[in-house]
Structures are given as C-alpha cells and as structure tokens.
Write a structure and sequence with these properties.
174 residues, alpha+beta, NADH Oxidase, four-stranded antiparallel beta sheet, 6 helices, 4 strands, 15% strand, globular
Length: 174
C-alpha cells in the first residue's frame, strides 16, 4: 500500500474490540514514534503505554473518549528537552517540544494503521487530570491521547472522514 493509500484509509476508530494488540505490533508502533523527526533531534517526547487494567481504568475515569480501547498511548513532552527558537529565526523563546510530540503521535498513528491496528487521536481531555493520575513530573506535559486496538466488527469511518475542504481553501501557491 502506498503512503497516500494508507493515509487516506486510516480513520478515527471510536469502538474497539477487546482483542489485545500483539507485543511485536506494540513495539513497532512505539518504534515509529522513536524515529519521528524532532526539532534539532532533541527528542522531547515522553510516551506512556497504558496497557494494564489498572492504567486503563484510570484513563477511562478522566477521559470519556477512550472508546473501549484495550490500550492507550499517552503522548507527552519534556519541556526542558525541547529545541528553543532563536531571535535570528524569529521564533525567540518558542519551545518546539509540543510540536515534536504531535509529530511523534502521527507517526505512531500511521504505523498502527499500517499494522491493522485502529486508533483515535484524542485532544478532548483535562491535561491536569491525566498528568495527575499518571503522576508525571512537573516538567512533562500531556498533549494527546491515542487509544489503540483492533476496531470492533463493522466499524466504519464517520461521515466527517470523507469531508475535505477544497484545496483552494487550504493551499496557496505563490
């Protein structure tokens, strides 16, 4: 499958089967995050794989958008490890850590799809609550949740999946 076919066929899964993901597939998904590009290769991402019943109970208690997934990847970043913008690049003081972590999340999401594992990028949650239930250090911030698992039987993309704005609205060629 080409990259464009993979990217087009991947969709947000909002109902998962209870079948666990094989260890080797989890390793491949996590490895995809490790090789993702980050600004100045600072690699500020912190990835937490929630796979135990206790961890999943905790995340379900603070986020209603886990959709019955058997596992969840919490994507966080270490603020102290992010590349900092410089004045000459007009990004003075900007910390690229969160942007880097979201790129890492995208790599893992696409690798999961390539392996037949469903996912749903989730941004609707309380960062503080997730931070607190996981007991993360103060310098780490959560930026995304990625429930992962095998889609339940019959799951299809939502109608919004096929709704794309015209390219003339999103792309300008100068």
């Amino acid at each position: 499958m080409s990259f464009m076919e993979l990217a087009s066929s991947r969709f947000s899964v909002r109902k998962f089967s209870d079948k666990p993901i094989e260890g080797e597939k989890l390793e491949q998904i996590l490895q995809a995050g490790r090789i993702a590009p980050t600004a100045k290769n600072c690699q500020p991402q912190r990835i937490y794989l929630l796979a135990s019943e206790d961890a999943m109970r905790k995340i379900n208690a603070v986020c209603r958008c886990i959709y019955g997934a058997p596992s969840c990847i919490v994507v966080a970043y270490d603020e102290t490890r992010g590349a900092k913008g410089t004045e000459d690049l007009q990004y003075e003081g900007f910390n690229f850590a969160e942007m880097d972590a979201t790129i890492v999340c995208t790599h893992m999401m696409l690798e999961a799809a390539d392996l037949g594992v469903g996912s749903c990028w989730v941004g609707a949650f309380s960062r503080k609550k997730v931070h607190d239930i996981l007991g993360l250090p103060a310098n780490e911030q959560v930026c995304a949740l990625l429930p992962i698992g095998y889609p339940a039987e019959g799951v299809q993309p939502s109608a919004n999946h096929y709704s794309l704005r015209d390219s003339m609205e999103t792309v300008t060629i100068l």
